[in-house]
What does this fold into?
Amino acid sequence: MSDLPRKAVTRTAKLAALPLGFAGRATWGLGKRIGGRSAELVAREVQQRTADQLFKTLGELKGGAMKLGQALSVFESALPEEVAGPYRAALTKLQEAAPPLPAHTVHGVLAERIGEDWREYFLEFEDKPSAAASIGQVHRGVWHDGREVAVKVQYPGAGEALLSDLTQLSRFARLLGPLIPGMDIKPLIKEMRDRVSEELDYELEAQAQRVHAEEFADDPAVVIPGVVHQSDQVLVTEWMDGIPLADVIADGTAEQRDRAGQLLARFLFSGPARTGLLHADPHPGNFRLLPEEEEGAPAGAWRLGVLDFGTVDRLPGGLPSTIGESLRMTLEGNAAAVYGLLREEGFVKESIELEPDEVLDYLLPIIEPAQVEEFTFSRGWLRDQAARIADPRSPAHQLGRQLNLPPSYLLIHRVTLSTIGVLCQLGAAVRLRDELEAWLPGFVAETEEPEPVAEGGA
It folds into this structure.
């Protein structure tokens, strides 16, 4: 049985219509140019109309279409404000909701995967889903021992839909390029395809969540819900309330934004060091801001709640020390050493010769947040970075096309970019250097011994 959505033919038709619409808008834009409109203005109009159609279609579908929509949503900060503004609400909606499965379908999955007596496991079960995403939806319930739980039910046919959608989307990935300046979307779609089997395996997800929940059990700043029950296509975890990060982005206080940003950066860099796993789906729908519950805690001592461990990168030794070493040497201005390390690790192919100083100039603006004690991320800053790399006339664009991203760094790179996108959506002031010094191998020279970041600083 499959409800994703209605029929496969319908899904394919909706996705197949996208490139035709894109081509039509390009022709429309050419006509505007001939009529005397400026190239920049016409390009933005085409970009906005293309984005409107893309996200409307992705929002109507689950599977890989929804997954790509969520992944792209964190990069809306890189778009010009007059383009991003009109459909920012649609992007935010993608992070938290999708058309739900009917109750009878959900009951059928629970009966098949837990047993015909599945209701005996629950004191309460809400048929209306509290959240719906790319491959499953979440229902609130009360477990038989009285614990409030989140019941994640995988959509029937989710695997086939994921693969079909991503295959279809990859065929016209280059047409999506103008939406997110400076980002090649095709490798993003390929990496999603490669990880479909992991995404669908709730046993792997439960294992990753258990590891995180155990490691962060006594952490005063990060909260991970425990796993209650797991079976094929059903995952039951402890329920977590809190303010969705999308709501903090929309209308949170400056204090909430800064705190969320600091803890998000801390979780990103400390997670691999503490668990050997990198949470690889950092869109706002997977995070909550929770008030401190302990007696005597200062007002506003917010904690970060983390959900959805379906996609993780397994890094037994933590993040590669190459990342920390290259960042440190870039900050030190050691162009030759940075270039040598990047060439050694495969970021610069053997067949290519680059000027070390030009490589350093390319990297310095990117790591600007680590140059100061506290950096305020913003949409304007990210737009400037995207424009610098996307402009075909700029040296940064030419050099960026010559650099290579080794496969082992692909997911780390995407997670880092996505996290920066969320920080810019938050407009958060973050002491990023503190987190890098505490958790990123190689960022501090071996003679130095930094202390872990003390709790309380936001």
